[in-house]
Amino acid sequence: MTHKEKPPIVAAQRLSPVGRASLQRHEGIKDYYNDLAGNCTKGIGVLVHYGHCTAGELKQKISDEEKIKSFSLSVDVAERAVRQQTKNQPLTQEQFDALVSFTYNVGAYGAKQILANVNSGKIRTAASEMQRYNKYTPLDERGKPLRAKDGAIIKKVSRGLTNRRMEEARALLKGSEKLNAAIVE
Q1: Where exactly are the structural domains of the chain?
Q2: What whole-number distance in Å separates Cα of residue 133 and Cα of residue 164?
Q3: Which CATH number fits domain 17-184: 1.10.530.40, 3.10.105.10, 3.20.20.140, 3.20.10.10?
């Protein structure tokens, strides 16, 4: 392979078993619960709806089979978004896994700018920008965003999201180094 040729793009790239295990570790496995931002979530980080879970939802149990099924469907959505929005940029498995993890967590729309940066080859920019997604908006008892005295919506930094974003950004950059080495060889 010459230095100008790019490795082939793998259109059917999927989340690896290592990536899947990492994503499950980050998300946790539960029945219905209110996530960090206070949104009703179930299983392995699958958003049910914005705002708090009802008392009835919090009492519902979910089978392990349903948790895995809803997780797999949500992973499929994240994988598809990453594949569709990074068609011009070859990705290592590690990069793909990191981008799927990020997209799973922030949603396809939320990941759009990061994926656009990756697609245009701005890997360092994408890795840097990813780290800004470490905040959440706490909700009040009515499920509305908490506001400061001046009316601005309050954002809080999450140590867990900060660590997760650092891990995803590192994988994105590490994968870029591997691709660059492969292109030069």
Answers
A1: 17-184
A2: 10
A3: 1.10.530.40
Q: At what angle do helices 112-119 and 123-130 cross, to 10 degrees?
A: 160
Kind of pairing between the strands at 40-43 and 30-34: antiparallel
Q: How far is Cα 74 from Cα 93, in angstroms, rounded to an integer?
A: 19
Whether 117 contacts 99, CB under 8 Å: no
With CA atoms as reference, report the closest residue to 45 among 59, 58, 27, 61. 27
The Cα 100–Cα 102 span in angstroms is: 5
pLDDT per position as a tens digit, 26-60: 999 999 999 999 999 999 999 999 999 999 999 99
| Percent of the chain clearing pLDDT 70 (strictly above) | 89
DSSP symbol at 43 = E
pLDDT band at 2 (very low <50, low <70, confident <90, very high): very low
Q: For helices 93-110 and 17-27, give the axis angle rounded to 10 degrees.
A: 40
Which pTM was predicted?
Answer: 0.87
| Token output for 98 | 């990191």
Predicted pLDDT of residue 42: 97
